[in-house]
Design brief:
Elements: H1 2-36, H2 43-65, E1 70-73, E2 78-80, H3 83-93, H4 97-111
């Protein structure tokens, strides 16, 4: 019986320490969850997001359903055309597979061409070099 009391009295500080540690970790987790919780989405912000989405959808609809030809990049000769015309042109050009492939590769190379590097300024021989 004495040995049981000694066993329990020796283990008591460990049990309290372990429970205290769990309590401290639990409080820290609760504080961090509360601290890192994002602010609720306000009605003004939700309205702004709805407006931005409506503007984006309107711009996309206008770009996709535009019945006119629009220059996308005049320097490279890229034109945005209506979807229906683009599909008809694709079908017409894809009749000859070899010509369609070479045409497509040429257009991709032209559209993704890197502009030439700007020329460097010439070094003047009249001025002494600066060190």
């Amino acid at each position: 019986m004495n040995s049981e009391r000694q066993c329990c009295s020796r283990n008591w500080p460990y049990i309290v320490t372990i429970l205290g540690t769990f309590l401290i970790v639990g409080v820290l987790v609760w504080v961090m969850v509360d601290f890192t919780k994002p602010a609720p989405l306000g009605e003004d912000r939700a309205g702004a997001r709805r407006k931005n989405l409506a503007d984006l959808r309107a711009a996309n609809t206008e770009a996709l359903d535009n019945p006119n030809y629009v220059w996308q990049d005049p320097a490279k000769g890229i034109v945005r055309m209506p979807i229906k015309d683009a599909m008809e042109l694709s079908l017409k050009l894809s009749q000859d597979k070899v010509a369609a492939r070479t045409n497509l590769m040429a257009r991709v190379a032209k559209a993704t061409a890197v502009p030439p590097k700007a020329p460097e300024k010439p070094v003047s021989l009249n001025k002494p070099p600066v060190f």
